[in-house]
């Protein structure tokens, strides 16, 4: 049954980092805001991804909001990289502080959004029978919020516990005495495997394409470091906003006391003599995390640098994994290092030396089907109590196209995006007035520190809405030509980069039938921000006001 139609200025979908900030900012500007979230509480990614070992791989002092000095000063991070429980606590702390939950409806999914050209408004429906009418409809639905689960034959017959890392249950999980399978060795699998192996009776990892992973070398932050960063936060945050990828802190000294910044290397990696290179990689760069590709940007496009770096990484895998056959499976085949997002781990390779850990190379020994008691491969029937799918997400477009969005003349967004997402600046699409996306396709989003990109989009959307109110403008949408030019600009920028040609979720390669298109903007955070500023300074160039 439908509930009575409610009118509101803004509907925000999603209560992750984007939704929480949007709700606060727009409500403070006097707009009526209704936020709708499928989960039971705020958190988004950090609500859903509770799998063992889940962690951030941007330094915690940078992966946090910058918009409130009070929040920034009050919160104290414990480690260089924060684990999921701490990040969830942080966003809950922010939601309490801003008192945003009063604008939020939880346990509710938005299902449809239909635009009415006469009233310039959207009618938004939910799975709980709500109907809202709003002028602005904002999808803050996340880039990695729709888990992708493979469709193995017999999956429904499996009688044990079956989980996906991206929708992990809240209950406390105990693997003691259990036989566990993990399918997938991307970032999520690589984080979960060492932790599950600590208690499981037996862990079997199903490997298809291995990913390269670097040691996180996570450690507690010193009080001195925290103090120094807080004292200099304004400068650091500004550097982030005008950097390539939205994070600027580099590898630190052992005591974690001094602030060091990432600096691009003077020459490509392959020009450093190999002995010297391998030594500095060992001593400094191997555990510098995502600062490494900022230092050696040539790793994103230069074949020679990639080759020498992979030689180093392959040697490292062979030296860490005792069994040469297992090591061979764990060495990625044919992929360049930067075909995918770099992964960071804690004792991942060493885990394969444990007696209770085994792996199955699914390229040689295919998964045929799930059975009642486990997994049947080409070679054997394997029994499991628990199967974990660490198989990734229908990234960037998945959450948006799952809502029935109809713009002008009944055009659906799903149909409009059938050959890949079409957006101007990753913010708006032609034919869908007053529909904004936060960190949408065509913006740096997942190629950046997401907190920096989220804040930029939220503030851009807020400024745009304020401008429309001041000028008494009813609607805004992207011009078709501006949208097309932006897409072509990104294709050109992305062409020389490895990620355009690799088989990752960045190009939709992980979801059968998904069009293969580079989805994030590859020009970097700084260039993108300048472009967004220029568009506004030129009177919202490329947008049509109605
Ligand atoms: P999300 O946090 O994804 O929130 C979107 C919300 O929208 C979800 O709660 C979802 O339930 C809700 N939603 C979606 N569709 C609907 C609907 N139809 N109706 C109602 N609600 C809906 N980024 C980094 O920068 N650094 C990292 O180290 C990093 N680590 C990550 C680790 C993991 C395991 C994952 C999965 C992602 C990671 N990310 C990282 C990316 C991360 O998604 C972002 O940093 C950020 O948390 C996204 O916030 P968001 O608010 O945009 O989206
Ligand atoms: P992912 O990178 O897409 O990895 C999915 C894994 O599952 C891959 O190893 C893939 O193999 C495998 N797989 C998928 N379908 C399979 C099948 N049918 N049979 C066998 N194997 C299968 O997903 P993810 O690990 O969840 O990470 C997604 C993104 O989330 C990351 O890139 C990152 O942006 C974010 N994330 C970040 C962190 C962090 O450290 N901060 C942690 C987790 C996630 P193939 O490679 O062969 O396809």
Q: Notable features of this structure?
A:
alpha/beta, 2 domains, five-stranded parallel sheet, 32% helix, 16% strand, binds flavin-adenine dinucleotide, binds NADP nicotinamide-adenine-dinucleotide phosphate
Write the layout of secondary structure elements.
Blueprint: E1 6-13, H1 17-28, E2 33-36, H2 45-48, H3 69-74, H4 84-98, E3 104-105, E4 110-116, E5 121-126, E6 131-139, E7 161-164, E8 179-183, H5 187-199, E9 202-207, E10 213-215, H6 223-231, H7 233-241, H8 274-285, H9 291-295, H10 303-320, H11 324-330, E11 343-345, H12 348-351, E12 357-361, E13 367-370, E14 374-377, E15 381-383, E16 386-389, H13 398-401, E17 404-406, H14 413-416, E18 435-437, H15 450-470, E19 476-478, H16 480-494, H17 498-501, H18 525-537, E20 543-545
Parallel strand pairs: 1-2, 1-6, 2-3, 4-17, 6-18, 7-16, 8-9, 8-16, 9-12, 10-11
Antiparallel strand pairs: 4-5, 5-6, 13-14, 14-15, 19-20
Helix pairs in contact: 1-15
The structure holds flavin-adenine dinucleotide (FAD) and NADP nicotinamide-adenine-dinucleotide phosphate (NAP).
Flavin-adenine dinucleotide binds next to helix 1, helix 2 and helix 15.
């Amino acid at each position: 049954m439908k509930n009575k139609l409610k009118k509101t200025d803004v509907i925000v979908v999603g209560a992750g980092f984007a939704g929480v900030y949007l709700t606060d900012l727009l409500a403070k500007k006097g707009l009526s805001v209704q936020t709708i979230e499928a989960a039971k509480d705020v958190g988004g990614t950090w609500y859903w991804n509770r799998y063992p070992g889940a962690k951030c791989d941007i330094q915690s002092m940078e992966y946090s909001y910058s918009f409130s000095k009070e929040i920034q000063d009050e919160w104290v991070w414990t480690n260089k990289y924060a684990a999921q429980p701490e990040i969830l606590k942080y966003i809950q702390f922010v939601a309490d502080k801003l008192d945003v939950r009063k604008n939020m409806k939880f346990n509710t999914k938005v299902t449809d959004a239909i635009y009415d050209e006469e009233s310039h408004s959207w009618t938004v429906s939910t799975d709980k029978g709500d109907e809202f009418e709003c002028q602005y409809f904002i999808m803050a639905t996340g880039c990695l919020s729709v888990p992708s689960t493979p469709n193995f034959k017999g999956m429904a017959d499996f009688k044990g516990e079956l989980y996906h890392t991206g929708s992990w249950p809240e209950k406390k999980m105990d693997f003691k005495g259990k036989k566990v399978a993990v399918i997938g060795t991307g970032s999520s699998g690589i984080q979960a495997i060492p932790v599950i192996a600590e208690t499981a009776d037996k862990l079997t990892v199903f490997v298809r394409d291995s990913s390269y992973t670097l040691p996180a070398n996570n450690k507690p932050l010193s009080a001195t470091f925290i103090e120094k960063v807080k004292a200099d936060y304004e400068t650091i945050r500004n550097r982030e906003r005008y950097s390539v990828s939205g994070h600027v802190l580099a590898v630190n000294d052992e005591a974690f006391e001094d602030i060091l910044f990432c600096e691009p290397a003077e020459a490509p990696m392959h020009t450093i003599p190999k002995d010297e290179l391998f030594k500095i990689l060992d001593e400094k760069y191997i555990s510098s995390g995502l600062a490494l590709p900022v230092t050696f940007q040539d790793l994103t496009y230069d074949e020679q640098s990639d080759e020498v770096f992979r030689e180093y990484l392959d040697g490292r895998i062979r030296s860490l994994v005792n069994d040469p056959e297992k090591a061979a499976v764990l060495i990625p085949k044919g992929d360049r290092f930067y075909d995918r997002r770099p992964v960071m781990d804690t004792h991942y390779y060493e885990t394969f030396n444990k007696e209770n850990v085994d792996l199955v190379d699914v390229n040689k020994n295919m998964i045929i089907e799930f059975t009642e008691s486990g997994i049947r491969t080409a070679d054997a029937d394997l029994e499991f109590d628990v199967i974990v799918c660490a198989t990734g997400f229908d990234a960037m477009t998945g959450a948006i196209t799952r809502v029935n969005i109809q713009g002008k003349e009944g055009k659906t967004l799903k149909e409009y995006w059938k050959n890949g997402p079409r957006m101007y600046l990753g913010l708006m699409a032609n034919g869908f007035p007053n529909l904004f996306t936060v960190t949408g396709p065509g913006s740096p989003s997942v190629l950046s520190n997401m907190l920096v990109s989220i804040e930029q989009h939220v503030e851009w959307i807020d400024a745009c809405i304020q401008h429309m109110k001041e000028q008494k403008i009813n609607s805004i949408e992207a011009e078709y030509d501006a949208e097309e030019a932006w897409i072509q600009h990104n294709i050109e920028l992305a062409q020389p980069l490895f990620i355009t040609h690799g088989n990752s979720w960045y190009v939709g390669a992980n979801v059968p039938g998904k069009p293969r298109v580079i989805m994030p903007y590859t020009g970097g955070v700084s260039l993108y921000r300048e472009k967004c500023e220029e568009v506004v300074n030129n009177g919202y160039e490329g947008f049509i006001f109605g």
